[in-house]
Amino acid sequence: MYLSLDNIWFADNRLFEVVDYFVKRGGTHLFLDEVHRYPFWSTEIKNLYDEYPSLHVVFTGSSLLELSNARGDLSRRALVYELSGFSFREYLNFELTLRLSSYSLDQILADHTTIAEEILRSITPYAHFDSYLEYG
């Protein structure tokens, strides 16, 4: 089950109750997004780990500070990974199945015009930039 904890529904409803219902009906995998928006999220997730040891929980949040502050509550229960966003080049390669090369700063400074012309032969970067800002 996927739940976005920034949904207004969670203003009046508890995560634990939803998950209890889900697990008792056979649910095994829980994906929680924007956990830092939910009050006391780390304590409730800790309680879920303790109450339902067979439940697989994956949680994400866009506030690294909030996630870092909660590590104490989830110690010994959670493996924490920081996943950086794509660079624009990585995003274009992924979305458009391209193989745009990476360049060092020295290469860019020495030959930026040639590099830019090469890229523009295969794509129009600005056509994808808004999408990158939203999803990349």
Q: How is the largest sheet built, in terms of strand order?
A: 1-2-3
Whole-number total of structural domains: 2
Distance between the termini: 24 Å
Strand elements, count: 3
Order of helices and strands: EHEHEHHHH
**Tertiary shape:** elongated
Q: Tell me the radius of gyration.
A: 21 Å
Q: How much of the polypeptide forms β-strand, as a percent range?
A: 5-15%
* Number of continuous helical runs: 6
Mean pLDDT: 86
How would you classify the helix and strand content by structural class?
Answer: mainly alpha
Low-confidence regions: none
For the largest beta-sheet, the strand count, sense and barrel status come to: 3 strands, parallel
| Percent helix range | 40-55%
Question: Would you write up a description of this structure?
Answer:
There is one protein chain. This protein has 136 residues and is mostly helical. The protein has helices spanning 15-24, 41-51, 64-69, 88-95, 105-122, 126-135, and strands at 2-4, 29-33, 56-59. It is elongated and about 60 Å long.
